[in-house]
């Protein structure tokens, strides 16, 4: 690493461990050499983990990390996610308070103790960190941190990048956004353009520009967190009056041995300035005060589905002066009440008794992150309603009308805030909502192509606004748009195979804008509810988009919220089409059966939905589906879900773009720039996604709801899978013992991994995974893996799944200049029980098989490895590295692979390109008659048979082994179950 780059990375007094002169002129890439100005939350998480790993390799002793930013920006979430991956010590500056004033006040932080604690750890000494109790409003004790317990310490807090701490920090991370930006956008919307952004910041966050923002510019990693609240992991609630429960005390239920938690809150609602009393309560700001802490949520975002109240994790901590700033801007506290809560939890469901003073009633509330689990717990406790789906605010307003008076404690608090020196506006600006209403009622006159905006990062001097003070959307509408219906004549058949008489004259009006995944998920569920209210059962939804865009994830999240059925269009594949790798052709779908199923659903008839086995490429059976009051919604998801022949019979059309689709485009642009060639997003798209632009996107632009999936499934910590790998021999009986015998299932897969690399990318003489795009061919399907896994200790941390792509995308990479530089053939025996997956991989040319334990729970994976006595035998090397290390030097090619692979790779490349050409020719010749479902596929050339024989070659020499393995495993499981039943 060059000295000037090091000085740039460790500027402003950071701990520069490169004091000695450089002894190497190597230009090897370092993640610390090219830190961008600011990145997304997911990308920042990935950069931070990789930076910590690099520093631990290049320096001795402790690595210290500071994560700073304004209240509600997401810095604590980032610190917790990083700590869960690398297992480091986590120090919160909240415990270093010396008073009960606003936590953003510099004088309330004990910097001397914090610096001393860090110095002790850096010098290899144990230390005692303070513990602050926010209910008692004082320091109540201390906690010991061992110097040898971890090689990394993360300090999280508003002033974590303060000058007094920077000299003891190795890595400095700034996080802005979250509720900080969203609250600014909300206030801008409420009060209009009468106040500048700087004035609003000084009012709501009076200490930010003076004491916080200057420190953030010293960060090496700068994160712009657009994530605010999400229904990706919602909280499900069931609420009833406490007398409806057989046991009035939740701790008296089967939560034996669980400690009851007691808390008291004051909840207040702030109405926008000059808003009429008839203004929607969803526009209000909710503030919850607990002890000396304040939590804010923007509006009453929730979904009510039958008996369930479904809420996002939408509360963020703010300072007391933020509340005073909102009052100074003209917001009024119109409703407030006290809520006393006693709750117990078993880890999956919490049960609370909540007393609301304004209502004089006590309510029992069950909460959990899984809808079925919450319902099952209510049934087990013998609670069957009547359920209450109204919020406490709605009940108070219905009972007492508008509350003009507020609690004495709250009035004293508000008076103290007004006397705290917060600037006030003499005349609150008027609110104008007319423009937003008119925008909501506008229809799309001319559909426009869907694109994902490139996430390009500019230099600091190129930014028109400081990155720390620019809301992600300057005109962001804080209130969710509402759905409207239009009356029109039923659409003409136009060759559609489905009778359009199903359609009513009442149709949803398309939303004029596109939305991110979080807001789109909420709007999608609200659209279903709107159709149910206006048209009744059933509601049939179609979700379309390119491969890897997030269609399936969105459909499953919607189904979890609404409690409905999801059907993949892959279930309607024709066997004769699939065996020829034509997954992306519209003709591969059995449209006649699909039409019949939709017809039966529309007319409340029981219907049989096909089940397609992708491993065998054949239809394996059917499952019955019947629409009822409990399940009146059906979601169809697939690439062609919005094709005219399908969407004309659906009630709601949803288009999703982004995900791995946009990530691959960004990756190609990055690789091209590294070799001195710059390509536009459109140039890359037309090459790697030709089917999308020609045959998929034209249907998506007509969707009622368009969703931009900016969520990065490749980099995000939300999709992490923890893997332990070992080549130690383990008997399959031992594998079965660590799995649940009642849920165990097994399978065998054969796959080929091909590594594509762009010539000209700098390398160190050996082929590295980070420089390659890996494409896996398994059972005739193609899957993509772009990201190099994170390696932490014994663990390999990688995305949960690979992402399906078409053969045309693989050919597009070849057309862009990527070269196939290596391949691996293997077979995998897979055993899983829903929590743990054990995979035994037999790699060609490698004598011993490798065993991998995979799971989303790090501790469960570690326990499984210890049970199998694998400790001390783990490796984090990839199969590519393992094979390369086994090759004699004389047998390696210039890329570091076996010279005999060149011919085999060339065969695979030619087969892929030939197959893609055939698919494109067929699509081009059939585009004129695309709406006709009766067209048949012509026979393919013999080259496809060669491809099939190549992919299934390993099946021949593993057939006998597979049969014996399966037979023995079945016998062992059967015998175990017999013994258990006998005992």
From TrEMBL:
Keyword Membrane (UniProt): yes
Region ranges (Disordered): 923-942
Biased composition (Low complexity): 925-939
Domain AAA+ ATPase intervals: 61-211, 537-683
Keyword Transmembrane: yes
UniProt KW keywords: Membrane, Transmembrane, Transmembrane helix
GO MF annotation list: ATP binding; kinase activity
Pfam families: PRK
Stretches that traverse the bilayer: 957-978
Signal peptide limits: none
PANTHER family (UniProt xref): URIDINE KINASE
Protein name: AAA+ ATPase domain-containing protein
Organism: Rhododendron griersonianum
Lineage: Eukaryota, Viridiplantae, Streptophyta, Embryophyta, Tracheophyta
């Amino acid at each position: 690493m060059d000295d000037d780059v090091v000085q740039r990375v460790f500027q402003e007094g950071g701990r520069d461990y490169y004091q000695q002169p450089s002894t190497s002129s190597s230009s090897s890439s370092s993640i610390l050499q090219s830190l961008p100005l600011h990145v997304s939350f997911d990308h920042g998480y990935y950069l931070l983990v990789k930076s910590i790993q690099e520093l631990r390799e290049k320096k001795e002793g402790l690595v210290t990390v500071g994560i700073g930013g304004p209240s509600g920006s997401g810095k604590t979430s980032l610190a917790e996610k990083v700590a869960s991956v690398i297992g480091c010590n986590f120090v919160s500056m909240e415990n270093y308070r010396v008073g009960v004033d606003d936590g953003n006040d510099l004088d309330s932080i004990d910097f001397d103790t914090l610096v001393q604690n860090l110095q002790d750890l850096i010098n290899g000494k144990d230390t005692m960190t303070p513990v602050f109790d926010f209910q008692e409003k004082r320091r109540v004790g201390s906690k010991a941190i061992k110097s040898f317990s971890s090689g990394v310490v993360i300090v999280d807090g508003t002033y974590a990048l303060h000058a007094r701490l920077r000299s003891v920090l190795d890595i400095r991370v700034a996080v802005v956004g979250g509720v900080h930006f969203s609250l600014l956008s909300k206030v801008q919307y409420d009060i209009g353009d009468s106040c500048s952004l700087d004035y609003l910041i000084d009012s709501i966050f009076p200490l930010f520009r003076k004491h916080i923002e200057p420190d953030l510019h010293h960060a090496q990693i700068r994160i712009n967190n657009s994530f605010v609240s999400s229904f990706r992991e919602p909280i499900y609630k069931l609420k009833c009056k406490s007398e409806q429960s057989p046991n009035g005390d939740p701790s008296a239920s089967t939560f034996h041995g669980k400690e009851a938690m007691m808390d008291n809150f004051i909840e207040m609602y702030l109405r926008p300035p000059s808003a009429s009393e008839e203004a929607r309560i969803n526009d209000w700001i909710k503030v919850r005060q607990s002890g000396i802490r304040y939590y804010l949520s923007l509006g009453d975002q929730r979904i009510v589905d039958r008996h369930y109240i479904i809420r996002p994790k939408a509360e963020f901590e703010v300072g007391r002066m933020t509340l005073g700033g909102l009052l100074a801007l003209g917001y009024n506290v119109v409703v407030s009440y006290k809520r006393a809560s006693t709750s117990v939890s078993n880890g999956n469901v919490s049960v609370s008794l909540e007393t609301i003073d304004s209502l004089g009633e006590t309510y029992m509330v069950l909460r959990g992150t899984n809808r079925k689990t919450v319902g099952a717990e209510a049934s087990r406790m013998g609670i069957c309603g009547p359920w209450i789906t109204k919020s406490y605010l709605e009940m108070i307003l219905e009972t007492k009308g508008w509350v003009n008076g507020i609690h004495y404690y709250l009035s004293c608090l508000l008076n103290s805030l007004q006397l705290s020196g917060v600037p006030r506006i003499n005349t609150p600006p008027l609110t104008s909502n007319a423009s937003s209403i008119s925008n909501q009622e506008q229809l799309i006159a001319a559909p426009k192509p869907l694109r994902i905006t490139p996430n390009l990062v500019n230099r600091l001097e190129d930014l028109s606004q400081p990155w720390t003070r620019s809301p992600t959307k300057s005109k962001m509408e804080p209130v969710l748009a509402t759905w409207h219906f239009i009356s029109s004549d039923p659409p003409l058949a136009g060759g559609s195979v489905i009778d359009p008489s199903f359609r009513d004259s009442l149709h949803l009006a398309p939303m004029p804008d596109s939305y991110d995944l979080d807001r789109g998920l909420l709007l999608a569920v609200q659209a279903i509810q709107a159709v149910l209210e206006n048209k009744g059962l059933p509601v049939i939804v179609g979700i379309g988009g390119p491969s890897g865009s997030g269609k399936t994830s969105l459909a499953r999240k919607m189904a979890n919220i609404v409690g409905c059925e999801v059907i993949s269009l892959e279930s309607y594949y024709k066997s004769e089409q699939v065996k020829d790798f034509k997954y992306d052709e519209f003709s591969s779908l059995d449209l006649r059966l699909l039409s019949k199923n939709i017809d039966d659903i529309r007319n409340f008839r029981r219907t049989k939905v096909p089940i397609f086995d992708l491993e065998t490429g054949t239809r394996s059976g059917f499952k019955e589906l019947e629409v009822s009051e409990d399940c009146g919604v059906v979601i169809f998801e697939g690439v062609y879900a919005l094709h005219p022949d399908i969407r004309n019979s659906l009630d709601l059309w949803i288009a999703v773009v982004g995900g791995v689709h946009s990530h691959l485009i960004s990756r190609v642009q990055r690789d091209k720039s590294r070799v001195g060639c710059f390509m536009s997003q459109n140039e890359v798209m037309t090459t790697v996604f030709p089917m999308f632009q020609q045959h998929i996107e034209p249907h998506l632009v007509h969707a009622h709801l368009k969703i931009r999936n900016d969520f990065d499934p490749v980099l995000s910590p939300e999709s992490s899978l923890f893997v332990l790998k070992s080549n130690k021999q383990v008997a399959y009986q031992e594998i079965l013992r660590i799995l649940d015998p009642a849920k165990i299932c097994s399978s065998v897969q054969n796959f080929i991994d091909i590594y594509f690399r762009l010539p000209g990318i700098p390398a160190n003489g050996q082929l590295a995974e980070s420089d390659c795009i890996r494409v896996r061919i398994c059972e005739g399907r193609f899957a993509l893996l772009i990201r190099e896994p994170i390696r932490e200790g014994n663990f390999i941390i990688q995305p949960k799944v690979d992402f399906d792509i078409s053969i045309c995308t693989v050919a597009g990479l070849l057309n862009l200049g990527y070269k196939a530089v290596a391949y691996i053939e293997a077979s995998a025996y897979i055993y899983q029980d829903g929590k743990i997956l054990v995979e035994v991989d037999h790699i060609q040319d490698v004598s011993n098989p490798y065993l991998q334990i995979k799971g989303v729970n790090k501790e469960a994976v570690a326990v499984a490895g210890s049970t199998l006595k694998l400790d001390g035998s783990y490796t984090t090397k990839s199969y590519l590295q393992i094979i390369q290390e086994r090759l004699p030097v004389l047998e390696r090619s210039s890329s570091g692979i076996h010279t005999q692979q060149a011919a085999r790779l060339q065969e695979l490349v030619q087969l892929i390109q030939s197959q893609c050409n055939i698919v494109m020719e067929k699509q081009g010749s059939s585009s004129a008659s695309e709406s006709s479902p009766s067209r048949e596929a012509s026979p393919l050339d013999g080259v496809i048979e060669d491809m099939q024989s190549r992919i299934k070659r390993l099946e021949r020499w593993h057939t006998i082994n597979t049969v014996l393995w399966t037979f023995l495993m079945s016998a062992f499981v059967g015998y175990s179950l017999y013994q258990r039943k006998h005992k």
